[in-house]
Amino acid sequence: MTCFAQVRKRPLNKKELAKNEEDIIETLSNSLVVHETKLKVDLTEYMEKHEFVFDAVLNEEVSNDEVYRETVEPIVPIIFQRTKATCFAYGQTGSGKTYTMKPLPLKASRDILRLMHHTYRNQGFHLFVSFFEIYGGKLYDLLSDRKKLCMREDGKQQVCIVGLKEFRVSDVETIKELIEKGNATRSTGTTGANEESSRSHAILQLAIKRSVDGKESKPPRVVGKLSFIDLAGSERGADTTDNDKQTRMEGAEINKSLLALKECIRALDNDQGHIPFRGSKLTEVLRDSFMGNSRTVMISCISPSSGSCEHTLNTLRYADRVKSLSKGGNSKKDVLSSTMNLKESTAQPLSSGLPTASTFEDDINDTWPDQNERDDFNAPEDSFEQEKLMWKKNGKLDQYGFSTAENKLRKPNGQTKWKEPVRSDIKHSKSDDDLNALLQEEEDLVNAHRKQVEETMNIVKEEMNLLVEADQPGNQLDDYISRLTTILSQKAAGITQLQTRLANFQRRLKEHNVLVSSSGY
């Protein structure tokens, strides 16, 4: 498993310029410096510098084409060599994650098709596309009318999405149509932070499959896979006071999944024996990205403004952890060297052959939006606020995972390495248990309602048969009355049982301070 951490800095937007906020990030070829303004005890300001080194640092002048060449293009050829590759963006609200991720799948599919038609021509390779989302801890197929899916592990501990529909594609136009269809179906909503916010994690997969022994009659086998993950954004508690019940539960599940992702990164960085991939559906899906023969590219999107300094530092710290997650005998330098050689060796087939699919990319900007549009970065779909956990320690509150100078260690090269306490005692916190219990009770209530409807339909059929018999000459009145009494009792018992379950669920929501509308759940 090899992970690459790359950072992209966006320009100051219109709102930040109006507030006279400064650009506090200085970028170099593969490093950057964050200038954080702090206050001494006597309220005197001083400047603290935080230095970070990454595989690549992309400043605000870098276009989307250059981002693709630096991040995804080097890993496209290796998926033909039984490798699973993943690309996902990470960062705070308004840092430009959606803007960065949007053009990457189309560009990658174009290069995959070129390789299939030239380097691997007549070798039985086929490209399949699937698109699903993780919403409220559940999986839905975005290309099949949001059909509910199930996640299972096979005998080899490989994650399988049961019921996921895959489409075999042979041109970029079809892929573009599928992506647009999935994005239109994806769950969005209005929150206290954003007017239009993604409320789910979207996963787009490009799978390379090969026919067994060249026989089309048998199902093709997966050779490699390239996944693009657009993470949903979290919210601070202060931003959710005006949200309704559904939005608050969505936010809780999103925050839980993002924290579970941090836990996995933290455990991998500390070389722990157990990696908590089962902490959420998101980390279960990402399991293949961090284990075995895999390549993972994390694009950390950061805001340059002084008002976002804390969030920017948090993003860079986790990107620094991902950078060191190179498991195996190869050093990071060797892995980078081999990847660059691979990129150079595949440059010819990627730039020649099929006609350039410019008609499908004209609507994708390769530069940042102009000044009048930059304020969009304050409320993108994939907003992400770093969530903070607090607990009592030695009689006072300490912030977990975002500690100050007393919790960090200085590396020889000046780069900051953050050391955080072990969270083994709070992995299964009460809040997580309560959230899981509420989600399970919600699913049980829906299943009970569905079962009640099915039973009611059967009872209605029995009533119709009873009425037909009652209209027949010589019908026994005693038998009619007895059977009708039984039917009415069954209907009343089913309704009473469902009402009791509903009342219990409403009481549980009120106990956990979740708003319930006057019309009921």
From TrEMBL:
UniProt entry keywords in alphabetical sequence: ATP-binding, Coiled coil, Microtubule, Motor protein, Nucleotide-binding
One GO biological process term: microtubule-based movement
GO cellular component, one term: microtubule
One Pfam family, short name: Kinesin
UniProt-annotated binding residues for ATP: G91, Q92, T93, G94, S95, G96, K97, T98
Protein name (record): Kinesin-like protein
Gene3D superfamilies: Kinesin motor domain
Transmembrane regions listed in the UniProt entry: none
Record has Transferase as a keyword: no
Family: Belongs to the TRAFAC class myosin-kinesin ATPase superfamily. Kinesin family. KIN-13 subfamily.
